[in-house]
Q: What sequence folds into this?
């Protein structure tokens, strides 16, 4: 086999992959300065070597495995989903049980990955472990990743009665602790809450009151609530000032 020249696309692709390191995904857009057809051919050849440099995951996506004493690693499904969506220009934020576990809101572990997306995208098919729900854009933040943890917390407040292995009071208490410790930004939480349901707006406002974080934003949250609506959530211990937000 003729050795590719130092300036060939194949050489440049190989050099970039080696520079990028192990446990990484690559696809054609990652080589935007090189001709796509030549990149595709180079990646295909690298996956068919006696000792493959990359492994084909799906059409147009290749993975550089990491060698361990237990063998070579496989790409994490979340990595693949996020890689595909990023190259499609679709911003996403994790949600669901797996995300709640990551934020310490439940001890349950889920193999199913769920995301909230800026816009609908139903063309990704990665098996039964992936699902996505479309959500509206949040005006205060151009990048969903900036407020990923706060978006997870808001989803948890929305799913308060559905989170496994955690009572509503425990979930709210953990969110309060995260805000108090600085793991969650209350200012982001409150701004984003303005685009959520009345119950979530009330819960965020009550969390702010408990932590002494009253502001113009929380005042606007309170004004947005119907004074005749009450939320029966049995959270008097977790949110002592909940009654001010119509939480019973």
A:
């Amino acid at each position: 086999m003729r050795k590719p020249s130092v300036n060939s696309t194949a050489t440049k692709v190989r050099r970039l992959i080696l520079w990028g390191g192990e446990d990484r995904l690559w696809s054609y857009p990652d080589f935007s300065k090189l001709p796509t057809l030549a990149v595709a051919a180079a990646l295909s050849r690298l996956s068919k070597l006696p000792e493959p440099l990359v492994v084909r995951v799906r059409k147009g996506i290749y993975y550089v495995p990491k060698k361990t004493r237990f063998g070579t690693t496989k790409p994490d499904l979340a990595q693949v989903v996020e890689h595909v969506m990023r190259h499609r220009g679709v911003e996403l934020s994790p949600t669901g049980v797996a995300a709640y576990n990551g934020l310490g809101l439940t001890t349950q572990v889920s193999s199913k990955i769920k995301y909230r997306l800026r816009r609908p995208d139903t063309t990704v098919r990665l098996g039964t472990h992936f699902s996505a729900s479309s959500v509206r854009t949040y005006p205060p933040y151009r990048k969903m990743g900036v407020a990923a943890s706060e978006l997870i917390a808001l989803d948890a407040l929305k799913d308060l009665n559905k989170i496994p292995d955690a009572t509503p009071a425990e979930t709210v208490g953990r969110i309060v602790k995260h805000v108090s410790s600085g793991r969650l930004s209350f200012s982001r939480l409150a701004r984003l809450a303005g685009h959520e349901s009345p119950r979530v707006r009330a819960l965020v406002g009550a969390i702010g009151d408990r932590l002494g974080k009253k502001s113009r934003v929380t005042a606007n949250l309170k004004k947005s609530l119907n004074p005749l609506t009450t939320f029966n959530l049995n959270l008097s211990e977790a949110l002592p000032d909940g009654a001010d937000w119509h939480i019973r």
